Amino acid sequence: RQGDAFAVLEALATEGAHFDLVICDPPAFAPAKPALEAGLRAYERLAGLAAPLVAPGGFLVLCSCSHAADLQAFHNASARGIGRGGRRSEIIYTGFAGPDHPVLPQLAESSYLKALAFRLDGPDSGPKHVGIACGPGRMVHVYGRTSRVRLESTSSWAPKLHSIWRRTWPQ
To answer: Which terminal residue of the chain has fewer beta carbons within 10 Å of its beta carbon, N or C?
Structure first.
């Protein structure tokens, strides 16, 4: 299924869909300081719509490439959204840019790539189906039932997420 991320996430919730893994990697919602408040509200809304789709014990990965939103602001917006989605969470991974995106100590905005991987409340029950949501341009890609994860993404986060998945549920 493809479409606007917010609309598709709302439709999936209405259908009662649940996934063991939901990855939200939207475009920059806060590319500059004037857009910061609106951007943080968008990250919160995205987390709030995605969290109910995660099966108990499953994973929600939220990514940001916003220059204006630092890690703490992004974390706070994500946590608020997850809570408003009616879920409790724990952070199991915090990701940053790879070596191909060096961070300059004198330029805080160069540390704009970040990702938070959350395990949401509920017992571990093993994989049932996998959902991958929100790529560039607010597009959603949802993959159906599988017992093995296939991250079909050009995102730099994909190898790390695959590693987390394999350590959590070895095949």
So the answer is: C
